[in-house]
Amino acid sequence: MTNDFAWMHSKRTQIVWGSFFVVMSAMLVLLQAGGGDIQGGVLFTNISSMNELPEVDPIFNEDMPVNTTKWSSIVIQHLGEPAGSIKSIQRSHLSGGLNGIGFHFIIGNGNGLGDGVVHGSERWVHQTRAARPISVDPESWDENVITICLIGNGNRRSFTEKQILHLSRLVQRLQNKLSIESSDVYLASDLDNSSNVAPSPGKFFAEAMFRSQLLDIAH
Predict the structure, then answer these.
(1) Cβ atoms 125, 64 nearer than 8 A
(2) Can you name the residues that pair with 186 across neighbouring β-strands?
């Protein structure tokens, strides 16, 4: 009886652990497939390459219609802080007088938002303009610019490989769909007029590698 009980206990344990791993595997597949709603925006856990475009693109879909003639350029900037969650960024921007997160997209570094995870804010969902950085002169700011923020401080350390990978893929998708030329993809520091403001996305941003991934858009 003791041996039979031990065998049954062992068998039951195997079934429980087997079921656990099946459930966890299914959850991981769902996460990799893409998004979910978060803080009024959309979460993209994985952005595929241009060679593996999904039939239904979560960035451009029927539930989130995009005005393809509105957007003219893209600006990349950093948060300036080593960590940040969607809640903390939203709280900071609300306290600064904005009516929500000021960026269209945020890409996490694993500290507050998953490494390489892309959050499309309400501004992207509702196709409203981004907030202008204080250091940028209004005359230098195009209201039809798409802003992408990397969590981290590029003047202190490099961004993660996943951040740069998904940044490149996101920008390529935006370029391709919206016909944005590589010459219209800027770093925030390209537009800053204040010498008192540290460059964004910072001196450790892999600019040459990033620009080598931009698409040549034919008109």
Answers:
(1) yes
(2) 75
